[in-house]
Write a structure and sequence with these properties.
single chain, mainly alpha, globular
Length: 263
């Protein structure tokens, strides 16, 4: 039985790019203003992935502890900045609290998955550490953007209701609890729905990639279950920590939401 992934030639990749005629036709036909932003996104994606591909090749070849840790720190910083800006919040207020939340949740799950679960030799093996960290962080990014945006926009939208709770003697944690629950649910519900239909409606990327790479399906399935559980755990923990920690800087001494923390 032949193993290994069939290489995709540059000509084949160029042919696949012609599929972009389909969304272009849809946007032109419906008048949706996404052509320019889509073109920029595709060009950026291509350049970024090409550069990352070259860098990861070097990273995997050298497999240096310090180089791997440096890349992990860069990933955490970039993810944190994107979470804050995408949630419509001010970087100067939220950078440290959300960095702590994202870093703690990611590292706890990453240690459990890679260092204990897989236990590669060496433990910092870039082939496992970097891709797994990327999958966890990528999903945490989307979940935390949703959690923070929902939480703070809901409080601002329902400011009178929120203030009423405070006037009646509620503590900040009590007055904000309805919005906190909604934000946590919004951040985690899509992943719960994805897990419920996995294997029936869709075959996830990690599992598909491993099968294409020559792994036996049962091995790929075990990895996929492990990564889905890890992502879910990191997303739930990070969305909880990021809201809790960000609340320490988002409210004034009278427990009112600071106007200047949102863009």
């Amino acid at each position: 039985m032949e193993t290994g992934t069939i290489d995709l030639s540059y000509w084949s990749l160029l042919f696949i790019y012609t599929l972009l005629v389909i969304p272009l036709a849809v946007f032109l036909n419906t008048g949706v203003d996404l052509i320019r932003s889509s073109a920029i996104a595709i060009v950026r994606m291509t350049i970024q992935l090409a550069l990352v591909g070259l860098y990861l090749g070097l990273l995997f070849e050298l497999n240096s502890f310090w180089l791997n840790m440096a890349w992990l720190v860069i990933m955490l910083f970039v993810a944190n900045v994107n979470i804050i800006s995408s949630a419509g919040l001010k970087l100067s207020y939220f950078f440290l609290p959300t960095l702590i939340g994202v870093s703690l949740s990611t590292l706890i799950v990453l240690v459990a998955f890679v260092f204990i679960g897989i236990n590669p030799q060496p433990l910092y093996d870039a082939r496992y550490l970097i891709p797994v960290a990327g999958m966890i962080l990528g999903n945490c990014l989307r979940g935390n953007v949703m959690a923070l945006e929902r939480f703070y926009s809901a409080i601002r939208k329902n400011e009178k209701e929120f203030s009423t709770y405070l006037f009646m003697g509620a503590r900040l944690s009590e007055a904000s609890s309805p919005y906190f629950r909604q934000a946590i649910k919004a951040a985690n519900a899509p992943h719960v729905a994805t897990m419920a239909t996995l294997g029936i409606v869709s075959l996830p990327g990690m599992m598909t990639g491993q099968i294409l790479g020559g792994a036996f399906p049962i091995v790929a399935i075990k990895y996929q279950i492990a990564i889905m559980v890890s992502i879910f755990s990191a997303m739930a923990l990070s969305s909880y920590l990021n809201i809790r920690l960000s609340m320490t800087v988002a409210f004034d001494d009278f427990q009112n939401l600071r106007r200047e923390v949102m863009k």
